[in-house]
Specification:
alpha/beta; Metallo-beta-lactamase, Chain A; about 270 residues; globular; seven-stranded mixed sheet
Length: about 270
């Protein structure tokens, strides 16, 4: 048995395909989780395109996609997800913030509509199943996989996830904005005792006061939360496009000095919790 996590996109806001972003990666949010013979996809940013090629190579026939929210950097890889155009594939797409906005299918269809995109959603040949829930719900994906959700503090709403399997837990907490000096109790509750927390670390504490209201957090807040919640490992994630490799290397050294449990996420980084 395994409980594997692989990062296909770690950047926030907009993809950065430049030589100055190679070391950590320029694709936006997309993470693959494999456990119990099932695959879960966390977000559908530009990293999803490469994930799709990998799925075709490995003949992966089905997966569940859990979206934190539907800002462009978290969904604009979906139209380029090659397996979704294959008739013998099935994908379940879930979101917890769109019940009052027509549901996740409506939003993804709107993204893939003229005049902004030439190929409509209904031209995807795979079986697509859409499910809307309410952030805060708990549900099971079968084979002992439990998903706990919580609302996050982000413009237009977002959902944080905790996935539990065979006594291990990983959390995906992005995009979210903290309040200085006031830890988010909902985040603390959902990450308590987790083996891995992937946290929105777009800014530094120094940058944050000039970014209040933008819906993001800092790597230092991630450390504080994880230390308070007895988390084993923090993956610093959702890197600012302006944080190029040199900056990220310095941040990585500082983070490791601050707390030995902190790592900086890079494209193709892997974890196995079992």
């Amino acid at each position: 048995m395994a409980f594997k996590i692989k990062f296909w996109g770690v950047r926030g806001s907009i993809a950065c395909p430049t030589p100055r972003h190679i070391a950590f990666g320029g694709n936006t949010s997309c993470i693959e989780v494999s456990m119990g013979g099932q695959r879960v996809i966390l977000d559908a940013g530009t990293g999803m395109r490469e994930l799709g090629h990998w799925f075709l190579n490995k003949n992966v026939k089905d997966a569940t996609m859990l979206l934190t929210h539907t800002h462009w950097d978290h969904i604009n890889g979906f139209p380029f997800f090659s397996p979704a155009f294959r008739k013998d594939r099935t994908f379940t797409i879930m979101a917890g913030h769109l019940n009052e906005r027509g549901g996740v299918q409506k939003i993804l269809a709107g993204q893939m509509s003229q005049p902004t995109f030439p190929v409509p959603l209904d031209m995807m040949g795979s079986k697509l199943e859409f499910e809307d829930f309410t952030s805060g719900d708990t549900f099971n994906l079968g084979k002992g996989i439990k998903v706990i959700t919580t609302p996050l503090n982000h413009p237009d709403g977002a959902t944080g996830y905790r996935i539990e399997y065979r006594g291990k837990a990983m959390c995906y907490i992005t995009d979210t904005e903290h309040v200085i000096g006031k830890p988010d109790e909902k985040v603390l509750e959902i990450i308590e005792g987790a083996d891995l927390v992937i946290y929105d670390s777009t800014y530094t504490d120094t940058e944050f006061p000039n970014r209040i209201g933008w819906g993001h957090s800092t790597w230092e807040e991630g450390v504080r939360l994880c230390q308070s919640a007895n988390v084993k490992t923090l993956a610093i994630f959702h890197h600012d496009p302006d944080h190029e490799d040199l900056f990220m290397e310095q941040l990585e050294r500082l983070a490791r000095t601050t707390w030995s449990g902190a790592v900086v996420a890079r494209e193709h980084m892997r974890f196995n919790l079992l």
